[in-house]
Amino acid sequence: MTVTDDRTRLTGAYTLDPAHTRIGFVARHAMVTKVRGAFNDFTGTARIDGAHPEKSSVELTIKAESIDTRNADRDGHLRSNDFLDMAQYPEIAFRSTGVQATGDDTFDVTGDLTIKGVTRQVTVPFTYEGNATDPFGNSRIGLEGSTTINRQDFGITWNAALETGGFLVSDKITLEFEVSAVRQG
Domain range for residue 162? Predict the structure, then answer.
């Protein structure tokens, strides 16, 4: 079987499985360590055209209030106007504008990412991790990807200077996607 044949078998509509999908992020803290977090409440769909990946599409909506860094005080600050301002901007959204195959099992998904009311185009390189039928008869696919954004591009500018130089929170934020999607129908 060729790669194209394998991709063609994947054609269909998919829904992200929130119990087996992680939408996370990594930021530098105090210039010496990394803080990892995730968003726990989201919905997402994908329409995959295996024979013609450029016809595929993705939509993702994240509830900003679901941010979780395992620290209640930090999470509260991240939900505030200093960062996500979830009272005014309760959702983070991504809508693809293009998909391009870059290898046998790699794809660039380009789209509009909206955070705090600001929309910027980003590209997320993804790797297709495989497909399987789970014990409940669901056809699943796995994808992993990550990209780095500058939070200031989205109007998230709060920071605190450190006595030793530098800042408390990095401008560069790595977004991480570990996706399990279930075929619909």
Answer: 3-183
> Across the strands, what pairs with 57?
47
| Amino acid (one-letter) located at 158 | W
Which pLDDT band, with edges at 50, 70 and 90, does 6 fall under?
A: low
pLDDT in tens, 109-157: 999 999 999 999 999 999 999 999 999 999 999 999 999 999 999 999 8
CATH number of the domain to which 38 belongs: 2.40.128.110
Looking at the structure of the chain, the number of domains it has is 1
DSSP 174: E
Long-range contacts of 53-58, Cβ-Cβ distance < 8 Å, separation of 24 or more: 53/7, 53/99, 53/100, 53/101, 53/107, 54/98, 54/99, 54/100, 54/101, 55/99, 56/96, 56/99, 56/107, 57/96, 57/99, 58/94, 58/95, 58/96, 58/99, 58/109, 58/111
pLDDT of residue 163: 83
pTM of whole model > 0.90? yes
Cα–Cα nearest to 99, from 51, 143, 53, 50: 53
Q: Round to whole Å and give the CA distance between 98 and 152.
A: 24
